[in-house]
# Entry
Amino acid sequence: MSLELRAITKRFGGLVANDAIDFAVADGEIHAILGENGAGKSTLMNIVYGLLQQDSGTISVDGKELTINSPLDSLAAGIGMVHQHFMLIPVFTVAENIVLGHEKTGFFGKLDLATAREEILRISQEFNFDVNPDAIVEELPVGIQQRVEIIRALIYDAKVLILDEPTAVLTPQETDELLNNLKKLRESGRAIVFISHKLREVKAIADKITIIRRGKVVGTASPSAEQSELASMMVGREVDLKVDKEAAKLGSEVLNVQNLTIQDHTGRTLVNNISFQVKAGEVLAIAGVQGNGQSEVAEAMLGLREHVAGSVKVDGQEIIGKSVVDCLDLGIAYVPESRELDGLISSFTIAENLVLDTHMSAPYSKFGRYFPDAVKKVAQERVAEFDIRAQSVTDTASSLSGGNKQKVVLARELSRPVKLVVVSQPTRGLDVGSIEFVHERLVAERNDGKAVLLFSTELDEVYALADRIAIMFKGEIIAIVEPSISREELGLYMAGVSLHAEVSA
Amino acid sequence: MKNNQVISVLAKKRSRNLKIMLALTLISFVLFAYLPGESQDVTFNFVLGDEWVIIQSWVIGSKIGAYSFSALSALFLVFAFLQARKGNKLGVSALAYCLSVFIAFMCWAAAGAAISVTGLLQGGLFLAIPLVFGSLSGLICERSGVINIAIEGQLLAGAFAAGVVGSLTQNSWAGLLVAPLAGALISLLLATFAIKYAVDQVILGFVINVLVIGLTSFASQRILTTDAARWNSSPIFSTIQIPILSKIPLVGPIFFSQTIIVYMLYVIVAIIQVTLFKSKWGLRMRAVGELPVAAESVGIDVNKVRFRNVLIAGLVAGLGGAFFTVGSSGAFSRQMTAGMGFIALAALIFGKWTPLGAVAAALLFGFADQLRTVLSITGTPIPSEFMVMVPYIVTIIAVSGFVGKVRAPASDGIPYKRGGSH
# Structure
């Protein structure tokens, strides 16, 4: 079966997310769509899947034009999708998730799960998926959850399988398994659309590559193309993601974490007894697959978490039990994982966001009176220094692009006298230009003698910045290694395989 | 290296609960047993009518009773402590503990009087009926992802409609028939504004309650009271004795000597408990209440499911409203639901958003309310103002985290918009 898109256009207000996109995939073929975050890949696939409707353009399957108004239409046409954020109900069992929307009922409307269980086991065996139909989805590792989505598509007889950034949440090992499974699916005669911004994976799996930039198809390439060539097509200019970094000049110890344990309010242990130190002038990267306790550790660095035990000392001063303001006063800069939710107040102006931490002191406030003009003046300096692209500092933060939002957060956090810089997923969802800026800035802070604690799930970022790498798995630091470690070895650690754990001080 | 500083939130909670239990035992010993006072006999009666086996009344001296049951509670406390040491749940021993403290309390509070245990439980069930209806209405709404603060309004509308129609037709069945429709009408308001126009659901619920209270009070004053014989004197359902079952000692008079509305409630509870977890309807309800975008992605029309379920919830609560008029008194009076809709909401939360849990919580609240009435009649050392507070104190204690892990449906109260991710 073949899927063909012709001149698909979709606008959100003034933004053209998809501009006359043509795309086709045939059975037995893996066709990759390569593009940066925000290039319009997900929008395109959500249109195909019926979650969004195109403004113009046509979708045809096997040469027949289709109107797709809801996921029901695309499912009926044999199109299945594996979403970036899994479309699974976390509290349901695998079988319940699979039947949802296609329930068969028996006597008095009683739900029939038995047939679904058999089907799941059949497909699970055929592709060696190892999925238990009665497991609760939220208790499964993400790699397995993704297989549940694939199984669902197969049960509903999808001939075209769309995978939207399928590797974003996987360990390197899980990624390899996924790629192998996709090859098996290709052999079974299915057409596969593989959406990604990761060059390495696209080259490894695709038969054809279509590159999208700013909502437009900018070209196609074969998988034998050079990575640098693909990267420059994707970004629109030459890119070199290597950050120039001189050797670390280590200073005294700034951050000392001892036996840190964090629980959630139900008593589940999220972080288990971890210890590490960061010295002035070095970047310690905490790597790991998302959801292994990194976010909680990052939050604990600023006193944002309850139910914390152990010790976190900054310059010898204990911060556990201290308020957030006290932590800030100790000289901690903090760039949270979600800039929209925790980094900024979207409805405030850029200027206001730039002084969220210092607005109560001079020159912004005196005797409880607030001076907006002083704020504006400083804001203009910061906007220039951090290259924040905004019409005016009095625009709301919500009007900025992701990259510029992140620059506002960095500008605020790094404009105080700080000793420790804690950054969490600093480049998630950013375009390449902003990534370069953020990386250079972080290296500059390190060279300036600050201790940098980086939490990242992106291996490229970890390798680009880290002086040492700590790997977290299931709430524990299972190793602290030098950045000379190979990707394969690092991947094994991230999957929880304990090698000869050499801990360097 | 083992971290001996490790705190466990659960263990903390458990130790806090144990401390509270210890405090209660001490209060029980001192207040109920030790403090000076004349020991009088307390009589507990278990018979209401003509059950098969007549259970003998049980007479005990108030002092000896308070002492022995305080001691028993101390024993269960030790059990609970040992359980906690092993890291087990306190469930059974905590329940036994509560019961012994309660009996010690009753020995003290009812000294010199006779308490009809069967009557107490029967009255508790009576007061719990609207709560159960209300909490099931809340359950259907909130499991679907719509917060239902308007239970009070739904109950009141049902009570009003049943009373008026029952009076006009002089037929209690006609009243019973329109009550659910009145509840559904209130739900229609809730659903339209909450789902279609995405109005804040908490504010909306309150506004609806105020509206219903205002309208029914107005109508009651201007119409019902002017010609009560015509407008406000509905025939009521008589109790139906279920053959055999109603003769079981203790249980019979409580559960099987009730009106048709109560029997319907049993059926509704059973149906909802089963369908919520084992039917297509229940599966979809829980899906749109947890992760609506996932439900949408498999072709479910989220807002349609929500809309329909909010209407069904209105039917249930409206039927519960009928209990106030055609199910018991026959006449409607202003604000006769008296905040029961809110207590029903509390029962839903206390019951962890499960049907059986909500029913158990509603029974507890109804029982606390009935206990107040019984004790104020027999006369107790406790000031009556304080007794009025009892059901609410029980509610607050219950809802404020005594029940352990509570997890609301993940998308409860969040309006769903298609393609909302953009």
Remarks:
- The longest helix of chain B spans residues 117-143.
- Confidence is low (pLDDT under 50) at residues 1-6 of chain B.
- The longest strand of chain B covers residues 41-45.
